[in-house]
Every structure is written in structure tokens, then in C-alpha cells.
């Protein structure tokens, strides 16, 4: 009897030892990946390939997985690696820096990358992918790009890596639709500050504005490669479709800006009001037309471009941008453009869109934009030689009461947002 229990005991001990050794092995593997300096392209690609969390860690190991993602993110942000730089050379002030905000839409992103690969002038551009979600597939698509310089940055306060604490949903956060009275008696987080519609914070709603703001700050102030760059930064999102002449038209717009509108300080390549009815003859001539007006979120939030001078004017309104009770970055930008910015935000915009958001544009679908752009191309309307200022001026400066969406009243969000602009320390 005693012998048998001794045997069982021995077996248990050896199993424990084996388990311990295996655990050490796995953690060593990851120590290796994260302590490796990411020296050149191929090394970087290899590590990213090896870095397959789903394979190594079953779900119960989540916490470690997240700490591994966190380490990877801070390494990538620190390293600021530019892929294909040797092939395409350094950026010039005449280059365009394209910043793409990416969440988890791998298939959307694949189309955008394909569209960009055909854009004239793309080989002189720098593509910066700004992620708020680590995904192997997306990483693979980005690392496979050969047609221009590429950099990746990661928003470090994502919900993915903060799934049960702020900026994710923390354990004692108030439910969105609880009444203020109930919230106060429950003493849940932020009970004192529901938004203007009486709702409490929803983590998922807040991420996009945080990410937009963080990435603009990161690009203009933290990236070495942008340090001496005074040219244009073009902002895109993962679900866009872009026309092949998008960069060409942007450069043309920059050339004529002084002549057409001496006070415009932003460019827009995606006109939201551009209805996609199939082309008529008259429509076709519109491809060479540009319009000029005060910036509005309704019309000008797709494919917006500006330089550091304009960014500085926006950033000086950080306080307003970060505390305005609206979770949409474009509504917040419109608010500061009208109430704080000096000079105001004035935009030169294409009459016919060169960029389309497929996700937020329910009536739009890929084949429809394709048909339109193919027709335009067939009739030789893309790559307009000369831009014309449309006689049909868009309405400027209308004192309409802006409708606020809310969902942005939690002081924690305000602080996080301000911290991205280094206005206050995050605590
Ligand atoms: C990562 O591992 C999972 C599970 O084994 C697999 O399905 C997936 O294809 C792998 N991804 C990559 C990029 O290798
Ligand atoms: C870009 O132009 C600025 C002046 O506007 C200059 O200081 C800077 O060196 C230039 N950068 C490059 C990369 O040529
Ligand atoms: C964009 O890419 C998608 C996916 O490859 C393709 O179907 C579409 O035709 C492209 N559109 C343009 C304008 O290049
Ligand atoms: C609040 O939301 C929860 C879950 O979304 C729902 O079940 C509940 O009915 C809502 N309560 C009110 C008062 O709307
Ligand atoms: C910026 O330009 C200055 C002057 O040309 C140079 O000394 C500095 O190294 C450059 N900085 C970067 C990050 O390229
Ligand atoms: C940046 O844009 C502003 C406004 O459009 C313009 O006045 C300025 O010349 C631009 N700066 C550079 C260095 O191109
Ligand atoms: C996209 O739009 C075209 C033209 O209106 C239509 O024929 C097609 O069925 C639509 N496709 C989808 C998936 O909605």
C-alpha cells in the first residue's frame, strides 16, 4: 500500500517537473523573439512570422498572450523600422506620407493595399499603418508590400490589450443606459459624468477617436523619419477604395492651392456628397474640378491631407478636441475648426471622389465604384492635366447648430486623449 502511494507520488512529481520545464521552454521562446533586435527587413519578417500567438497559447493563457503582444507593440513602436527603404530611398519634402488607420478588417485592407499598389507616385510615398489590433493576417499583408516604403505603428492603449481595464471596460464601469440616480447609488466608475444624452461610457465607441488623435500626434512628433518632413500627410482608413490618380491629384491640388484659395490649409480627396449615380457626359468633366470651403465633417472627413503647419494649429486645440462630448473624431475636429483653430480649417476638395469608404457608406459597394472609376478612366478623365475651380461654390461658414453625438464624457477619456498630446500626464 505504502509502495503504491509512493509510486503515485513519484509520478506526480515528475509530471510537475515536466510541466515546469515546458513552461520555461515556452517563455524562453518568447524572450528570444522580443529581445531580438529587429535589425533588417528579413529578420523582422521572420520574427513576425514566428510570432503566432494562436498557435502557441491556448485561450487560458490569455494574460501572457496580451503581455507578449504588449512587448511586441512597444518594440515595434520604439524601433520605427522602415521596410523597403533601401529600395526606394529616403523621403523628401515632395513625398506624400500616407497614414492608414487599421482595426481588424483584413479583407478590406487587402483591397486598399491592392488599390494603392496601382497608384501613380506610390513608390515615392511612405505608407504608415497604424493598428489598434494585432492580427497575424493583417501583419502578413503589410509585410508583403513591395511597392513602397512601409512602416507600422501600434496604438498602445487598445481594447485588445486592455480587455478588462480602462481604456477597455473596467469591472466597475457603469452600464451605458443606467440612470444617474442608480449609478450614484451603485457607485460605479464615472457615476457623476454621464454624457449629454445621459449615457455612460462604452469602451468600443471611444477607441476610434483615441486612435485617430494618438496616431496624428505620434506621426508628427514621435517618428524620427517625419522629424524633418514638411510635406503632406494623407489620412486613410482600412476600408477605403482609392482611385489610381489619388496622389497625382493631391500634388496638383497642392500646386494650385495658392492661386485658388490662399487661405486653404487642407486637402480632401473623398467628397462624401459625391453621389455615385452612373456617369452622364456632364458628370465626367467634373473629374478635373475642385471646390473650396470651410472644413466640414459631413463632407470632408474621407482622405484628408495637411502638413505640419496645419497640424500644429489643430494640436493647439487639444483641450477642446479632447473634452468635446462627441466620440467621433471628425465631429470633434469640426468643432475645434470652428471654435478654436487659428487660422480656421479651410479645405480644397475634389468634386469627384478619389477615395470611398465602403464601411460607412451603406449605399456604396465595390463594384459600383469600380464601374464609375473604370468609365472615368476609359473617357480619359483621371489624371486631369489642369484642375479647375468649380464655379459652384460650396456653402461656407454656416452657423448651423452642431448636433453632438455624446459618448465622450468620461474624464478618463479626456485625460487619455490629452496625454497623447503630452498636455497632461496619464495616471
Ligand atoms: C497561426 O496558428 C494558427 C493555429 O495553429 C493557424 O491557424 C494560423 O494559420 C497561423 N497563422 C500564421 C500566420 O501562420
Ligand atoms: C524639408 O523642408 C524643411 C523646410 O521647410 C527643411 O528644414 C527640411 O530639411 C526639409 N527636409 C527634407 C527631408 O528635405
Ligand atoms: C481596389 O481593389 C479591389 C480588390 O482587389 C478591386 O476589386 C478594385 O477594382 C480596386 N479598385 C480600384 C479603383 O483600383
Ligand atoms: C439597458 O441595456 C440592457 C442591455 O443592453 C438592456 O437589457 C436593458 O433593457 C436596458 N435598459 C433600459 C432601461 O433601457
Ligand atoms: C534633420 O535635419 C537636420 C539638419 O539637416 C539634421 O542635422 C538632422 O539629423 C535631421 N534629423 C533627422 C531625424 O533626420
Ligand atoms: C504648409 O501648409 C500651409 C497651409 O497650407 C502653407 O502655408 C505652408 O507653406 C505649408 N508649409 C510647407 C513647408 O510647405
Ligand atoms: C452593387 O451595386 C451594383 C450596382 O448598383 C448592383 O448591381 C450590385 O448588385 C450591388 N452589389 C451588392 C453586393 O450589393
TrEMBL record:
Pathway: Protein modification; protein glycosylation. GO terms for cellular component: Golgi membrane; Golgi stack. The keyword Hydrolase does not apply. Disulfide bonds join 174-188, 261-264, 317-340, 322-417. It holds the Pfam family MGAT2. Its main location: Golgi. Keywords: Disulfide bond, Glycoprotein, Glycosyltransferase, Golgi apparatus, Manganese, Membrane, Metal-binding, Signal-anchor, Transferase, Transmembrane, Transmembrane helix. It is found in: Golgi apparatus membrane. Mn(2+) binds at residue 239. Its EC number is 2.4.1.143. It is a single-pass type II membrane protein. Substrate binds at residues 132, 207-211. It catalyses: an N(4)-{beta-D-GlcNAc-(1->2)-alpha-D-Man-(1->3)-[alpha-D-Man-(1->6)]-beta-D-Man-(1->4)-beta-D-GlcNAc-(1->4)-beta-D-GlcNAc}-L-asparaginyl-[protein] + UDP-N-acetyl-alpha-D-glucosamine = N(4)-{beta-D-GlcNAc-(1->2)-alpha-D-Man-(1->3)-[beta-D-GlcNAc-(1->2)-alpha-D-Man-(1->6)]-beta-D-Man-(1->4)-beta-D-GlcNAc-(1->4)-beta-D-GlcNAc}-L-asparaginyl-[protein] + UDP + H(+). GO terms for biological process: oligosaccharide biosynthetic process; protein N-linked glycosylation. InterPro entries: GlcNAc_II (IPR007754), Nucleotide-diphossugar_trans (IPR029044). One of its GO terms (molecular function) is alpha-1,6-mannosylglycoprotein 2-beta-N-acetylglucosaminyltransferase activity. The chain crosses the membrane at residues 12-31. Its cofactor is Mn(2+). Belongs to the glycosyltransferase 16 (GT16) protein family. This is Alpha-1,6-mannosyl-glycoprotein 2-beta-N-acetylglucosaminyltransferase. It comes from Drosophila hydei (Fruit fly). The lineage of its organism: Eukaryota, Metazoa, Ecdysozoa, Arthropoda, Hexapoda.
